[in-house]
Amino acid sequence: MQHVARILDANANRAREAMRVMEEAARFLLDDAALCESIKSLRHDFASAVKAIDLPLPLYRDTPGDVGTRITLPSESERESVNDVVIAAGKRLSEALRAMEEYAKTLPNCTAPAMLEALRYRGYTIEQKLTQRLSTQSRKQWKLCVLISEHLCVNGDWQKVAKAVIDGGGDCIQLREKSLEGNDFWDRASWLVEQCHQAGVSVIINDRPDIAMLAGADGVHLGQGDLPCTKVRQLTSKQLLIGVSTSELAQAQQAYDDGADYCGIGPMFPTTTKHKPVIVGPDYLRAYRQWDKLPHLAIGGITPENLPTLIDAGVQGIAVSSVVCSADDPKHVVKQLITA
């Protein structure tokens, strides 16, 4: 009994410390009230689980006699970032809860194991949410993203347009080809990634996380009818940035909750590239900027002539397609959009 009690006490302390580290991240690093409350609730319910063990655990504590306190690793004294601090705390929490759950099973008539198991699963979810929220430093606010589709380009010369975007100062290109077969799509994406990355330009692949990963692209963009962001995140982990098209704040909030890295917001104006039954316009941009939890790319019918309207509404980044792809001088249009 004494040995089990010491194990339970040590891991209870470890779990409390880990939860406190995670809560401080939610509170001070993220200013996320909902996530902070969920961790507080976890701590409260953990206290109830410890009470269910029905042993005076601190009385069994023997810190001077604990051989584990004298064993340390170099990695334990270094953390590269606050992200690593929180990730380590999350792993420590799940390990401590699992150890408590297993050893508490040896106690007669103890209800704590089931409670600890439920807490462990809640801890997994909180760890995942914290990791998603703390990934914001990898998110990018592009200024100009050009969506390239061969059928929109003059004479189908999509490579000329891509080079014009790079030379004109665009900082992101999204490859959007709905009809290409997989091998051709991958080949095209690989060429684009090589050209863009040499110039420090990001590449996003529309709809296809598999192509994006295989080609070494920076991210994938998803429409409302495409694979869910959560499933793509499971597939890609942190390998890709994920963007989601939105036309209302509820969709933006869902994208945020699902771990998206940026939102496409629109349509801002009527467009011939992709039919949209409702034009949400600059009003949605203004509302989005008030919400402002993720970087954005305003999209839909944007031209050098109407861009000032979006600038007045607080736009930080735009996405365009035919206005550049179909231009006789796409590089000139890119420069116009950047300097507007």
Plain-language structure description:
- It is a single chain.
- The mean pLDDT is 92.
- This protein folds into 2 domains: 2-136, Ferritin, CATH 1.20.1260; 139-339, Aldolase class I (TIM Barrel, Alpha-Beta Barrel), CATH 3.20.20.
- An 8-stranded parallel barrel has the order 1-2-3-4-5-6-7-8, surrounded by 7 helices.
- Strand 6 (262-265), helix 10 (281-291) and strand 7 form a beta-alpha-beta unit.
- Helix 1 (2-29) runs antiparallel to helix 2 and helix 5 runs parallel beside helix 13 (330-339).
- Helix content is 52%, strand content 10%.
- It is elongated.
- The protein has 13 helices and 8 strands.
- With 340 residues, it is an alpha/beta fold.
What's this, in brief?
The protein has 340 residues and is an alpha/beta fold. It has 13 helices and eight strands.
Overview features:
Ferritin, TIM Barrel, 13 helices, 2 domains, alpha/beta, eight-stranded parallel β-barrel, 10% strand, 8 strands, 340 residues
Provide the fold topology.
Elements: H1 2-29, H2 33-53, H3 82-104, H4 112-133, E1 144-148, H5 158-168, E2 172-175, H6 182-198, E3 202-206, H7 209-215, E4 219-222, H8 229-236, E5 241-246, H9 249-257, E6 262-265, H10 281-291, E7 296-299, H11 307-312, E8 318-320, H12 322-325, H13 330-339
Parallel strand pairs: 1-2, 1-8, 2-3, 3-4, 4-5, 5-6, 6-7, 7-8
Helix pairs in contact: 1-2, 1-3, 2-4, 3-4, 5-13, 6-7
